Amino acid sequence: MNQIDKTKPVLVTGATGYVAGWLVKKLLEKGITVHAAVRNPQKQEKLQHLNQLAAKSSGSIKYFKSDLLQEGSYAEAMAGCELVYHTASPFVTDVNDPQKDLIDPAVKGTQNVLETANNTPSVKRVVVTSSCAAIYTDAIDCQNAPGGVLTEEVWNTTSSLNYQPYAYSKTLAEKKAWEINKAQARWDLVTINPSLVLGPPLNPQSVTSESFNILRQLGDGTMKMGAPKIGIGLVDVRDVAEAHYNAGFKPTAKGRYITSGHNTNFLELGTTLLPKYGKKFPLPKKALPKWLLMLVGPMTNKLFTRKFIRNNVNHAWAADHSKIKEELDIEFTPLKVTMEDTFQTLVDEKILQPK
């Protein structure tokens, strides 16, 4: 049970990322010195939003060049830190070489950061950004979980290098983290396991990221004939940042935390937007039948294989988030607020144009 000294610097890996941005904001507002590990500290345009946050808050930010695949490259950034947030991991679903593009950076990156923690005597706690993808692959997996609901006890056993390799990468990376943690006794490990993260990005450039694809398709007419009822969990990026912050500084935080506000599906995400945006955007109003998806899905989107459609469409997604509510005091943002705030960002950035 480690108490973290807020006068010491805190390391955030992948600091330019979507979730990391909101976490860095929170740390800076609390007057903390953030050691931001980034791929290229020279790329000022990538750091602009973080510099602006630092200028407006009582904390300060220092940048360190680091690389997930380079051993020891986090040593300088970690020196003197009691708390480490490891948020850096590739989030892409369309890859040519899953081993090279997903598995290696996720697993070796985690190993790199945690072995550096082993060699850095000041470190007391590491918070790793894992994912609900380390708990399940497809919505149908919820039915096979005890009581039909995902909990922190459940691990993903159905993904592989060839099927849903992103989920496989998150599973292997988190397992590696626990293995390294259990082999020592100085620092404790907490993992945050978010479902699909939405909400406004602090860095407008990140609206091109994978997280926003579903929203773009809801608003650009791709799904105007109907949206597939693909069961998913959804959580607001601001709640995920809050979860990370509390996981770092609450001495009693321990183990894994499912970080998911809502059990939902693609159609519900679309219909939530109808009251505010339905007149101007071709949002879906009904469910697309599963048989039709089986027919055209594989032709329209290479991720929509028949197996994926079979295992996710018309299957409810359900996870228990009571642990994080009780232990980390997380109150989840209403679905409508998250959806409208995110959709508005896409409109403001001209990624979606009203018809």
Automatic annotation (TrEMBL):
Residues forming coiled coils: none
GO molecular function: oxidoreductase activity, acting on the CH-OH group of donors, NAD or NADP as acceptor
The entry's keywords: Oxidoreductase
InterPro entries noted in UniProt: Epimerase_deHydtase, NAD(P)-bd_dom_sf, NAD(P)_dehydrat-like
Cleaved signal peptide residues: none
Residues covered by the NAD-dependent epimerase/dehydratase domain: 10-247
Homology family: Belongs to the NAD(P)-dependent epimerase/dehydratase family. Dihydroflavonol-4-reductase subfamily.
Descriptive protein name: NAD dependent epimerase/dehydratase family protein
